[in-house]
Amino acid sequence: MALSHTDESGAMPPDFSFEQTFAGTVCGIDEVGRGPLAGPVFAAAVVLPRDLPPPLDRELDDSKRLSAKKRERLADIINGCAFVGIGQASVAEIDQVNILQATFLAMGRALDALRSQTTVDQALVDGNQRPPLPCPVQCIVKGDSRSLSIAAASVVAKVTRDRLMTELATVFPGYGWERNAGYGTAEHRDALGRLGITPHHRRSFAPIADLIGNR
User: Fold this and answer.
1) How does pLDDT run across 152-185, given as a tens digit for each residue?
2) What is the rounded CA–CA span in Å between residue 114 and residue 112?
3) How far apart are the C-alpha atoms of 180 and 199, rounded to whole Å?
4) Contact at 8 Å (CB) between 80 and 60?
């Protein structure tokens, strides 16, 4: 059922309008981690039940609009009621093939993981770059704020990656990954100057490549 209420900012939340234009099983796909200086890129592929359990029916939204606490809670509910596939591409793959192609790898792996659980007849993908997937694809600009399935994928991908970066922060302390998730914050950049690079830094990204070149 499509949702019609507005969120706290007055904007319309995502609904099932896109999903309802297709026959068969429709999944939403989104990625997280294209911009960080460290860590893999993640993607999630999600098939939601059309009768969403509470509080998904009221609170599910683009992960960027949600607090970390709410993302964690909603991700656990999504994993409990939906078909979910998760994929990632490593730092080595990002450096080898570039971040866009690595993102496509992560999306393909997420879809493969999803298709091991259920059939998928159509994929709705956030953004305007069409990944080479083994099913029909519709790209939706700002899809994570327009499609509930993509919103769910954005939440699951974000929470999964943030949990990994928090774990990595215990092995490589000082960079603030438990707070910045590998993004190039002032804290992270300062630590790079003091502590140097780790195996989880993306050497093809300019700040890291410049640091390697300068040394």
Assistant:
1) 999 999 999 999 999 999 999 999 999 999 999 9
2) 5
3) 17
4) no
Quote the tokens at residue 94.
């990002």
Question: Three-state SS for 143?
Answer: helix
The token pair at 84 is 């979910």
Please give the average per-residue pLDDT across 11-29, as a whole number.
Answer: 94
Q: 41: which strand partners?
A: 89
Please tell me the pTM assigned to this model: 0.93
Directed axis angle between helix 148-171 and helix 68-81, to 10°? Answer: 120
Chain position carrying tokens 């994928």: 153
- Please give the helix or strand (H or E) that residue 140 lies within, else none: strand 137-140
Asked if residues 124 and 44 have their Cβ atoms less than 8 Å apart, the reply is no
CB 131 within 8 A of CB 125: yes
Q: What is the pLDDT of residues 101-159, one digit of tens each?
A: 999 999 999 999 999 999 999 999 999 999 999 999 999 999 999 999 999 999 999 99
